[in-house]
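Revision sheet: structure tokens.
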Amino acid sequence: MIRETFSEEETIALARDLGSKAVPGQVYRLDGDLGAGKTVFARGFAEGLGITEPVSSPTFQILKEYHTGRIPFYHYDVYRLSDESEMDEIGYEDAFYGAGVSLVEWPERIETLFPEKCIDIKIETDPGKGFDYRRISIEGLQDQ
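Predicted:
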């Protein structure tokens, strides 16, 4: 599935819809360049889960957990990891295989740790179509 958005609000609305349909045990791999809108997407996704607290990038913490929605939400930014083994220290398996939903920014950094079935989301920009334009590709939802 490919969706185009032309504003931050449209990106949030798309992510909110996905979050509203998320179920425990799903792992979303969120790919996009710096500034592509991954954190904006995560905010909308959290809204769809019923999370009302502010959502920000876990860049320096690696993981932020939210437990105020209908299911736990684990938001990872693994860009700063130097080795996949660092994920063991934060208990990623409890999140990936637990009762919540996980969203992982920079998934290529921990590629071998993911469950067999994941949902892949890629956010791309195109300055020729406007500053707020995003092309969002979503794969794997039908496998869930």
